[in-house]
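2024-03-11 09:14:02 DEBUG pipeline.ingest accepted 1 chain
2024-03-11 09:14:02 DEBUG pipeline.ingest length=182
2024-03-11 09:14:03 DEBUG pipeline.predict start
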Amino acid sequence: MSLESLTSRLPDYARDLALNLEAAVGGSDLPVQRLWGTVLSTAIASRSAVVLRELAPEAKALLSPEAYRAARTTASVMALNNVFFRTRHLLSDKEYGTLRAGLRMNVLGDPGVDRVDFEFWAFAVSAVNGCGLCLDAHEAALRGAGVEREVVQEAYRIAAVIEAVATTLEAEAVLAEAVPEG
């Protein structure tokens, strides 16, 4: 199971996705931990069993046990935060923004990895989950830590490619059942 295996599973009509996956992940200049934590956390956020089965073993082999756990933890806590804060942001009644969240998020205080890596992963997962409030908060933290815009863009570039690959492969699996060849 690997990036190459996942790329080979993409149908011919999704050749651009295969090329984008190779470039965004295979050709990335990000440090290994930042890159593969982003890949793993966005694969989890994509909710695609196919993508996660292909990429998780490679992520586990390339990440320290602490980083592997932290990337999974990031995806988990951001699944909670993205729904909660996206909803709060979208509601017309802004008084909800003054209410105590009442949610446990202790991992935010000590994510188990370098703070910039955690923020990068949280930003990427927020891109997959479409939470503008979380995107703004994590982008501000990254920029405040001195991360350049071009590097920040890598997070949502990877997120976009992983999500598109997940959507395509999940659709292909359903179509193969619903509209058999021949």
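2024-03-11 09:14:41 DEBUG pipeline.report The longest helix spans residues 149-178.
2024-03-11 09:14:41 DEBUG pipeline.predict end
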